[in-house]
Amino acid sequence: MIRFLGHRLWQSIATLFAIITATFWIIQAAPGGPFQSERAISPHIREQMLAAYGLDRPAPEQYARYLGNLLRGDLGLTTKYEGWTVLEIIGSAFPISLQLGLLGMAFALAVGLPVGIIAAARRNSPADWVPMALSMIGICLPTFVMGPLLALGLGLKLNLFNVAGWYGWSDRVLPALTLGLYYSAYIARMTRAGMLEVLSRDFIRTARAKGASESSILLRHALKIGLTPVVAYLGPAMAGMITGSFVVENIFQVPGLGQHFVSAARNNDYTLLLGVTVFYATLLVAANVVVDLIQAWMNPRVRLES
Amino acid sequence: MTDVSSVSHALRSPWREAWRRLRRNRLAVACGTLLVLIGLACLLGPALTGHTIENQNLALGATAPSAAHWLGTDTLGRDLLTRILTGGQVSLAVGLTATLVSLIIGVAYGATAGFLGGRTDAIMMRIVEILYALPFIILVIILIVVLEPVFKTPQMAWLVDLFGGEGQIKLVVLFMVIGAIEWLTMARVVRAQVMTLRQQDFVAAALALGVPKWKIILRHLVPNCLGPVIVYSTLTIPAVMLLEAVLSFLGLGVQAPFASWGSLIQEGADNLETSPWLLVFPALLFSTTLFSFNFLGDGLRDALDPKAER
């Protein structure tokens, strides 16, 4: 187990290093630099600004300095929000995105798992095909259609929630719902498929023959193995949630990290773009290690394969 | 005698067998037909609606569906049906072009890695894994941000003129960038297929005869991967269209004067309270198209590879 963990950690660090290096050099290749497209600035002021950000140095030196600063946890200054460091922006915006993501995921699991388990247990009954047909619609409606529709229905027509902003607890409902619905549908389908696969195995028949009750078969014998595909999906789902948060934060005017990433892209704020990418990469790589560990704990075969 | 050989040929041809299986799958056939109809409507429709997308009527503004404007008008008084069909041209063009780009890169990359094997394969697949670590949309956004100013430099002016303007070049950049990112899964699919093919006798025979490696890849391995490649391409089209729509929704993709289903949905979301039809109709057509591509892809998978698990 420790060797497995060590191997995965080493791989993750190599991956992260490669991502940071590639992103740095790609952004370095952009012509002009951050102060190019603004109102005409006199040359000597631009020179001073470039010097202040260390952008007047040769590229390899900038790269070495960026890596060094990164090790000390310094992601540099943003070029558009004057006086803010990239880290301060991430620090103020990420907790909001994290809260949104966790609420969305909690909703997805709270709805998806029970629906999937019940559908598998009551196969080919209305409790199976009604939710499964609904989940197909949930998967086919993109977030940016679902969000405005929910805002129209629950926000404007029924007047239950505000359609924009991030102040009280009721403001969390619509964004989290929009983000979570797609995943609840997907998780319900995966849970059903995983459980059905396990329920047809021999050891379930043995358990049944020995007189185990239906609920004990479902929850004690089948669940742990039946959920393996869902756990494996949590890594990709986390990446999907980042994409989703770009859209959801845009629709509901949530001041999260996704909004900052998109506006950094619109404003050519290269240091912020690079910093947030590095942050997302670290987050996802770490999440994947955690998911791998959970998988190895749940299913010893995964451990042996790698 | 000729009869017998033609019959046995008809029975053995795997493509004909696959076509027969596909036709029996009613859902896949319905989705395929629907896609052809949507494609034709987007191609021919804008000329037949009797309105043009340049035709603004500010006095009219946003109106609900009526006899003159079947799907209503947008805030500038433009006919929504015409705009949706014209936007469909862009959305479908993105889907097809970017998928073609991803297909070329993915097949070449996957076939090379799978055939050469060993250390080359390990390094090539490691690169794919690294690119997989980030969501595609982040890579696409970074590439767009870097590439767009490249085309504003004087050295690139000739290329901009070649494509007919800055708006057009932005579209081309979008097509290429999405295609340049979406090839990863295709490469994995092709590599897996090539690795099993490589073990077979006809490849050993070709090697023994001294056929160069690139020729073996091109002439013997790639044609044998066609089944999975077709299936996966069909599934890549909706993924690409969704990515384009998200980018356009965020204001980073297709921009005025051009429109795509993604940017139309974004306009609709902005005017949801006063004119909901601006969101509902583009969203309906967009979702139907994604849905159809996915089911057609599933049908093709069942038809071309009956053994594959779903």
Number of strands of chain B: 0
Secondary-structure element series of chain A: HHHHHHHHHHHHH
Beta-strand proportion of chain A: under 5%
What value does the average pLDDT of chain A take? 81
Summing up helix and strand content along with how strands pair, one would put the structural category of chain B as mainly alpha
The CATH homologous superfamily of the domain at 93-280 in chain B corresponds to: MetI-like
Specify the oligomeric state.
Answer: heterodimer
Major sheet characteristics of chain A: none
**Parts with pLDDT < 50 across at least 5 consecutive residues of chain A:** none
Radius of gyration of chain B: 23 Å
Q: What is the overall shape of chain A?
A: flat
Biggest sheet details of chain B: none
Gyration radius of chain A (Cα, Å) is: 24 Å
Number of helices of chain A: 13
Give the CATH class of the domain at 93-280 in chain B. Mainly Alpha
CATH homologous superfamily descriptor of the domain at 86-261 in chain A: MetI-like
How many H/I helices of chain B? 14
Separation of the first and last Cα atoms of chain B:
41 Å
Word description of this protein:
The complex is a heterodimer of chains A (306) and B (310). Chain A is 77% helix and 0% strand. Chain A contains 13 helices and no strands. Classes of the chains: A mainly alpha (306), B mainly alpha (310).
Topology of this structure?
The complex is a heterodimer of chains A (306) and B (310).
Chain A: H1 2-28, H2 43-52, H3 59-71, H4 86-121, H5 126-140, H6 143-157, H7 170-199, H8 202-209, H9 214-226, H10 228-251, H11 257-266, H12 270-298, H13 300-305
Helix pairs in contact in A: 1-12, 4-5, 4-7, 4-10, 5-7, 6-7, 6-10, 7-9, 7-10, 10-11, 10-12, 11-12
Chain B: H1 2-12, H2 14-24, H3 26-48, H4 80-116, H5 118-132, H6 136-150, H7 157-163, H8 166-181, H9 184-198, H10 201-208, H11 213-224, H12 226-249, H13 261-270, H14 277-304
Helix pairs in contact in B: 2-14, 3-4, 3-14, 4-5, 4-8, 4-9, 4-11, 4-12, 4-13, 6-8, 9-12, 10-11, 12-13, 12-14, 13-14
